Every structure is written in structure tokens, then in C-alpha cells.
Amino acid sequence: MTTLEHRARPLDVSAAEQDYAAALERDAAALRRIVDLTQRVDSNHPLFLEVAERLDTLSERLENPVDTVTETVRNPGWRHDPVSGVENAIALPLVLEFEDDRTVRAEFEFGLPYQGPNAFVHGGISAMVLDHVLSAAVPPGDVPVVTAQLTIRYHRPVPLFVPVTMVARETDRDGRKVWATGELAVDGKVAVSAEGLFIEKKLKSAQ
């Protein structure tokens, strides 16, 4: 049996709050498209001037809203994290599949917003995504896990616009300490691998 992370997880909120969450998800998807398209269109195209003016207007409206949200931290966090958050415009967003053998898998492509060297993914982005997937491979307990140590090995560059497969699994556990390994592969060849140590720990908000 395979379960999908986040997309299939229901929100335990009121109907009005569900509508608000759906609107945030649509906004993030639209912004994600804009970020991607501005990387692709000829920078000398006259449409860029019009787009810039419209985005400035939207930014000013958001900076001076009629009703201001007072919370500085949104919950639940999984909807707006920078890797799989559907409410986050900089997220892929990554969708994880949880296999019966407790392996976590994801298949996706990196676009231009994640470029480092020309035509290849920035190494820091690969590390961030692997950290996210490895931590997801740790079965949840009474408290969440936080990353204590992450070792990344780069075997070969990860190209943009090609199918990427990422797999992770838990390898050991000792009390509150949990270890996991994973890799990012292209065409069946490992491009980036990782080993992580995670600690079960309660987090306190900075609010």
C-alpha cells in the first residue's frame, strides 16, 4: 500500500478556513508559475515591464491590507514548508509516497528556479530536499524529529528538466536517536546521497 504525503491529508478546520487554505494554495501555485516563467522568457521582452508594474501593485496591496493576519507562524507547517508546502511558492512542491516496506519515494523534476551551475541544480537545493525526505522516512512518534547531522555526498551533477527519483529509509534507532539514508538518482544512477541523524525533540516557537 502506498500513501501520499500532504495532498491526501485532510485539514481539520472549519469550512471557511478550508476555503482560505485552498485560496492560499492557488496563490502559491500561480506565483510558482510566475517565478518559473520569468526565468524562461526573453528578458528583453516588453511584457516584463507590464508584469513588473502589476506585481508592484499587488505587493503594495498585500503590504497594506484591510484585515491583517496577526499570526507570525502558520500552522500546520507542512502546508508551507520550502520543500513540499503547497502554500509556499518557492516549494517544488514535493509529494512523497510511503511504501509498505517503510521506504519513502518521490519522483519529480527541478526547474530553473533551482539552478546553480548553468543547466544543473544548485547543490544546496539537493541537500535541502534530501534532508526533508530523510526526516520523512522516520516514523512519527510522540514528538517530531529534528536534524542533528546531515552528511551529503555529491556523485554527479543533477540536470534540470529531467525526471529525478529520490528514495529514503530508516536504518537504525537508539532511544531518541534515529538514523536514515537516502539518495537522489537520475536515469538509475545515484547523483547525490545522504546520511542523517535525527533526534526526537519538542520544538518551542520563537513567538
Automatic annotation (TrEMBL):
GO terms for molecular function: hydrolase activity. PANTHER family: ACYL-COENZYME A THIOESTERASE THEM4 (PTHR12418). This is Acyl-coenzyme A thioesterase THEM4. SUPFAM superfamilies: Thioesterase/thiol ester dehydrase-isomerase. It catalyses: decanoyl-CoA + H2O = decanoate + CoA + H(+); octanoyl-CoA + H2O = octanoate + CoA + H(+); hexadecanoyl-CoA + H2O = hexadecanoate + CoA + H(+); (5Z,8Z,11Z,14Z)-eicosatetraenoyl-CoA + H2O = (5Z,8Z,11Z,14Z)-eicosatetraenoate + CoA + H(+). Keywords: Apoptosis, Cell membrane, Cell projection, Cytoplasm, Fatty acid metabolism, Hydrolase, Lipid metabolism, Membrane, Transit peptide. Belongs to the THEM4/THEM5 thioesterase family. Its EC number is 3.1.2.2. It is an enzyme of class 3 (hydrolase). It is a peripheral membrane protein. It holds the Pfam family 4HBT. It is found in: Cell projection, Ruffle membrane; Cytoplasm; Membrane. Residues 120-172 form the Thioesterase domain. Coiled coil: none annotated. The keyword Membrane applies. Its main location: membrane.
